[in-house]
Give the backbone structure.
Amino acid sequence: MKIKAVYPGSFDPITNGHIYIAERAAAIFDEVIVSVLVNERKNAAFTVKERCEMAKESLNHIQNISIDSFNGLLVDYVRHIGASVIIRGLRAMSDFEYEFQMALMNRRLAPEIETFFIVTDPKYSYVSSSSVREIFHFGGSVEGVVPDYVLEKLKAHYH
Ligand code: PNS
């Protein structure tokens, strides 16, 4: 049986840390869908379309990865597309509490869906989309932290 996994997130924007997790997930599961959350309330820097485009460009070297977006409850979406696994990346212990809570809540809502955690490479342990946005905004370098394509999009967005 082919196993379909969803790697959900805000991806605002996608970073090399996300790409690392997606690559490792793609080596384990038959199909990985990187799915961008459509959240009207959160004031995102990039539109969902832009975030999907950046994810697509950054992951087009991996055959079994596709990009999508979702609305509403994650477990409903995972069920709807016939997936059975949720991928989440862990950077540090500080991620754990929130991720543990979310995994347990999702299990309560959908016991047949498994949350699968992948630990990041230490070189990305401090990388987050929010720090990328802030550092870039104030003129710092985010080279090596995001793909070149994303760097260009950041320049277009903030400058
Ligand atoms: O990249 P993020 O912002 O850490 O991703 C969080 C995400 C998108 C996985 C989470 O906010 C989510 O699943 N939102 C959809 C709504 C939902 O299902 N909430 C219940 C989670 S217990």
